[in-house]
């Protein structure tokens, strides 16, 4: 499976240039070596308020989304402390995970608890 890569500034400049030349999205995708849906999504997500594509704004929007995206983790300090307390009481990682599942407590997998 091919790894996902975000579009570069150079690719956005090329998209802008080809759009101005009235080239189709599939043509642009072939030129960039990406899936046509990538170009479609890029144009849809990054148009100006007037419905036009501007590569500078598109790059700025992309960077803003990347910065604002916060990575969610279940293994918080509270979860870590909880796991440590249960392990000190001789609970197995499976017991900890099962207890949390039954009591609707957000928990990482028992494999992650073994790492602790």
UniProtKB/TrEMBL annotation:
Pfam families: HTH_38
Occurrences of domain Transposase IS30-like HTH (ranges): 3-46
Source species, domain of life: Bacteria
Protein known as: Helix-turn-helix domain-containing protein
Organism: Elizabethkingia miricola (Chryseobacterium miricola)
